[in-house]
Design goal:
The complex is a heterodimer of chains A (459) and B (458). Chain A is of the alpha+beta class. In chain A, the strands form four sheets. A six-stranded antiparallel sheet of chain A has the order 3-2-1-4-5-6. A six-stranded mixed sheet of chain A has the order 10-9-8-13-20-19, with helices on one face. Helix content of chain B is 20%, strand content 40%. In chain B, strands 8, 15, 16, 17, 18, 19, 20, 21 and 24 form a nine-stranded mixed sheet that branches. In chain B, a hairpin with a 2-residue loop joins strand 22 and strand 23. In chain B, helix 1 runs parallel beside helix 2. Chain B is globular and about 70 Å long. Classes of the chains: A alpha+beta (459), B alpha+beta (458). Chains A and B meet through strand 2, strand 3, helix 2, helix 4 and strand 5 of A and strand 1, strand 2, strand 3, helix 2 and helix 3 of B.
Amino acid sequence: MPDRGDGLMASGGNGKDRGNPAVDPFVEALLERAMKVSAAAEVFHVRHRDEPVIFEANRLKLVESRESAGVSLRLIKDGKIGFSSTSDFRNPGKLVDKALEMSPFGPEARLEFPAHRDFSPVDVYDEETASFPVEDMAELGQAAVDRLVRHSPDLTCDGTVAKGVTTLTVLNSSGGAASYTKSVFSVFLHGTVVKGEDMLLVSDGKSWCRPIQDTTEIVESIEAQLDLSRTVAQAPVGDVPVVFSPRGFVGALLSPLMAGFSGKAVLQGVSPLVGKQGQRLIDERFSLWDDPTVAYATGSRMCDDEGMPARKLSLVSSGTIGTFLYDLQSAAQAGVESTASAHRGISSLPSPGSSVIVVDGGDTSYEEMLRDMGTGLVVERLLGAGQSNILGGDFNANVLLGYRVEDGRVVGRVKNTVISGNVYKVLENVRAIEKETHWVGGSIRTPSLYAHSVSVSAK
Amino acid sequence: MDNNGNIRDRIQDAMAGHDARYIEIRVEDVEGSHIRYRGKELEEIGHSTGVGGCIRALVGGWGFVSFNDLDGLREKVATAVRNARLAGEKDVSLAPVEPVVDIVPPVVVKDPLAVPLHDKKSLLDQYAETIWRVPGVTTSSVRYGDSRRNRILATSEGTYIEQGQVDVSMHLSAAARDGGEVQQSSLSLGSNGDYSFVETLHGDAETMAHRAVELVKAPQVKGGEYTVVLDPVLAGVFIHEAFGHLSEADHVYENQQLRDIMVMGRRFGGPHINVVDGAAVPGLRGSYKYDSEGVPSTKTYLLREGSLVGRLHSRETAAAMGEVPTGNARAISSQFPPIVRMTNTYIEPGDSTFDEMISDIKDGLYVRNWYGGMTTMEQFTFSAGESFAIRNGKVEELMRPVLLSGNLFTTLENLDAIADDLDMNQGGGCGKGGQSPLPVSNGSPHIRIQKCLIGGTA
């Protein structure tokens, strides 16, 4: 154990050699205290501030200023992991006592804390986001809402414009130390049109580490949804050619697909991808990355939540299954290296997950896909997706927003329609992948995906 | 609260003398533990504490401030008032309520926080072992959590309430795999203050594990319209999604078209349908004495004999619609403002029986258990954990789980039979406006729905 000296409430003096952003003195003191009573320890600390302005029924309704901070302590005592967390910074001693009290019952520690202290920078902070005036956010949101209501006077629009700043710190007894600050700006708009017994819901939005000063793209996307949805059309049923728009792909297919890449699911033997690494299971035009280094994407980060340096991972390369996602403990259990995929909140241990999902573009335009499909369905938004057996790759959902296609063009919005299938069967052999890629939110970039056939049922 | 002695004075002092129509301060502390098994191994055991607070101020619109650090309360109130002034265009009003001063200790039957860690772990060990004794199980998960929350609410109208709540929850699941096919089965349970609720699940755990193994071999359901019979668990999810959310007045009060649809007296289903929500219904996961605005809880009929007779309100939505607050404004923690939420929602018993319901079904489905449910008011979904074919009045073979899709205007009309065997599902957590999972319960007797749309193979 490295000698870290005494001092229960060190006032920052011990941290000067670390070369990272100023670490909260509480965090250092807590680690030192924990190291005195355990073989190894790690402190994870998050400080978060955000200011959303919220619109309801076309007008500004609520302005919020939210601050929160929390700290968690993971320690290893007699080979077992003890864990405790708090948002009450008045009593660090209690946190150490509670983690110690938990440790005899805790899981066997397979992990070792990493010693990384130097990280390649990843751009995730913009001072302009942090200092963006709340009055201007209110104005920007109101202008976007007003424009949508001018386009469709029968629209009732809700929305949120928000800015947030998060500082995250990981410090451990191996000498590992990481701290960075991320800013996030987001604009989300939702509209409802009620006509008799028909309700239409439209929405779009984006998050980015830099300010989103121009909402044109979001507004035009919602206007397009409104224009395409004015007529209700009967859904084609049976095995039907389906284009999943970028949001449709994310809603229907991405979670069941990603569930298979969880190192934990692989360890437990419940991932359909167990033993399939290096095999071509998916269409060879399909490549999928987890890339936490994309500048200003909201999921990007220089290190994961255990202080491992982040790097771009190839999950599917031309249809061939690549790496699975691991944090320290699951990697040690599997006998592999952590892929720096740890995500955690304050009140629980880390778990592996993705950061910024990027699907490579294909060679077909969106218009060409529609022209090719004859009679088919475009899936844009789903309801109830993910509330099924996603471990097995199944998807099952109501098509909340989707369009019937005839002769290469959208003829109307479908209703009372459900789609059903399995992501591996859909991706095994796709009809086409869109050339262009699009951001969905601030941490997924994907093209539209055109499936030969998906089971569609409708009233 | 550590500094409970003077917290009331500090709050009152901080609230005084600001230029706002209404100010409320909520402060809470929470303590809890969780244990998780993944497979045979304990994966995580942890303890957490928290403290936090928030301020809501009304000038024209609302201002809100939340924090963990209780110092500088007065400046935080000033920030909330400033925010409210910024949001100043709306003319929000609040339905009047009598100020309340009360101290409400948590309802505790067997306090989960008083159960030694060793006993909790050995209970979970037993559940994990029970699941793994079933041949064919590939993996399992056992998750336990408990918490004790003490909430203080003080308003500029003179309300001061301290209210405690103890929650305990257990989630078990088993998965089985055959080649690339993975199937799972799960069980969720929770209780308001009674650990003994989660102590006797051994038989249920074993049944669940068998179910996961059987599902791998079970055939898929063909998509289309079916006559379906829902068990009380899934029927509870159904009513929560089909009608509960639309009864939350904040979805309706500012939209004239929706107000026209949700007009009192409108018929949504047959005269056998009666639907209730209420935190005043005692002993359930969504039960409490006062909501997060200090309004006493009630029991509210939403549908009586198939017609709309009530809805769920906060003080704001009640004022906007000229109705009476129902005590349904709930905040999941002190980091959020209260919004209109359900509590304990259920369909009242009818006079049919399960056997009568299935007796004249030639080709239908018996759907049980649940993955979840979602709604956007008109369209909604509810996902079953397992299905059984019904043929010629008999429940036959097990089928894969299905997603059921409903429509506000037709599905309740098609609910044509209600049994007499009401049962409440206490394992649910509801999500709305980023506040999830909020403890709620929902329930129903067995019900039958004609022409229900189901996703499946072509």
